[in-house]
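ok new one. same drill as before - structure tokens go in, u give me an amino acid for every spot. 227 of them this time. try not to just spam alanines like last time pls lmao
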């Protein structure tokens, strides 16, 4: 697993811890800011005056306490951001290994926690890696073909894409074994079949930016296979 994956997971975990602490602090602060019940007075005039004065004092106290609460939340954010920046790669690895171990223990003990990595993404990547060798097409300009021509005309470029896992033979397995045992070192070889064109489409003709006429053969694939 790469370093950025460890950093992303650690940042998500620390962010969730920070949001929990901030919400708990805001809840406790809101309970502290709630006005206390006023004591009963002897007359209605005194009660009305005391209620008006208490409301004004409570509003002023809330206005006075709000910057303090913001400073407290800002200090928490600064502390956790500094904590995240202070982590080294080794400390992140230790933290993540401890979290993974706790997760495994919770799963083995019958817990129902959500998985760290959803299985849907893995299935999509597995399907993308195991697509069969097939013919695909893409509309591009002549200049994008990389053949040295300058033209704004577009062509339909057909190409081969996919894997050839089903086409692996004993030759490929033996060749891979020889490479792993360093019996074959210097030769440039490929120890597995590749998705390549078996036949090519018709020639493509076009005009370049200087009104010169060109014809290119074997540009697009017509049939694909594992070779």
């Amino acid at each position: 697993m790469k370093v950025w994956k460890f950093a992303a997971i650690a940042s998500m975990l620390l962010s969730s811890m920070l949001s929990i602490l901030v919400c708990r602090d805001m809840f406790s602060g809101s309970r502290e800011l709630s006005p206390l019940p006023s004591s009963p007075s002897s007359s209605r005039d005194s009660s009305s005056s005391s209620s008006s004065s208490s409301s004004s004092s409570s509003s002023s106290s809330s206005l006075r306490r709000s910057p303090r609460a913001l400073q407290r939340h800002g200090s928490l954010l600064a502390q956790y951001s500094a904590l995240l920046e202070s982590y080294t790669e080794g400390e992140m690895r230790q933290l993540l290994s401890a979290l993974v171990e706790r997760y495994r223990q919770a799963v083995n003990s019958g817990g129902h926690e959500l998985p760290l990595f959803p299985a849907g993404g893995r299935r999509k990547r597995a399907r993308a890696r195991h697509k069969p060798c097939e013919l695909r097409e893409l509309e591009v300009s002549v200049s994008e073909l990389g053949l040295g021509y300058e033209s704004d005309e577009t062509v339909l470029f057909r190409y081969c894409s996919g894997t050839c896992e089903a086409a692996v033979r004993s030759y490929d397995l033996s060749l891979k074994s020889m490479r792993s045992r360093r019996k074959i070192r210097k030769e440039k070889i490929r120890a597995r079949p590749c998705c390549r064109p078996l036949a090519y489409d018709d020639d493509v003709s076009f005009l370049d930016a200087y009104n010169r006429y060109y014809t290119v053969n074997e540009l697009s694939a017509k049939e694909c296979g594992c070779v």
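The chain has five helices and six strands. and btw The longest helix spans residues 44-86.
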